Amino acid sequence: MTKWIHPIAGALALLTILSFWFATVIVETLGAPAAIVAVKTAIPWGLLVLVPALAAVGGSGFALAHDRQGERVAAKRRRMPIIAANGLLVLVPCAFFLAAKAAAGELDGVFYAVQGLELVAGAVNATLLGLSLRDGLRLSGRLRGQSVRT
Q: What is d(CA 50, CA 29) in angstroms, rounded to the nearest whole number?
């Protein structure tokens, strides 16, 4: 069952982060203030999907890699704490802060500074999850790549 949970939870986490990121970029460039408020107040609700997905990815990943060694497995192990710390220490607080500022109609300089931080941190997490997805596909034999010891 872990072999099914891990890729599904990983894909769900990556797609959720990408949807937050792209919704933010699109609404900030094309949307009216009401649309910005709608997106920023919806994102914390999306955390109800994202946080369990990330927990499932981490737990199932550790279970799958229990005694495996190799560069790809090590890289995936190194990425997960960064993804978790970035999410818990940067992205979650930013999401709640921005939702509160947006709900109060305070789309000011502080809002946009935190928004910039959130976009950078979200891009970092999406990139790290994407790299882990790639390595997972290579480990499973579903994706061919450069010859690297696994």
A: 25
Distance separating alpha carbons of residues 13 and 119, to the nearest angstrom: 16
Structure tokens at 123: 């891009």
Using CA atoms of 9, 12, 18, 20 in order, give the dihedral in degrees to the nearest 10. Answer: -110
Q: What is the pTM (predicted TM-score) of this model?
A: 0.88
Specify the pLDDT at position 150.
47
31 phi/psi in degrees, rounded to 5? -90, 160
Q: Are 3 and 63 in contact (CB under 8 A)?
A: no
Closest CA to 73 of 1, 5, 6, 4: 6
Contacts of 100 (CB under 8 A, 6+ apart): none
Helix axes 2-30, 33-64, angle to 10 degrees: 160
Within its chain, how far is the Cα of 149 from the centroid?
A: 27
pLDDT mean for each 10 residues of the chain (150 residues): 88 95 96 95 96 92 85 91 94 98 97 98 96 90 64
> What amino acid is encoded at 18 in this protein?
L
Q: Which residue has the tokens 């933010």?
A: 24
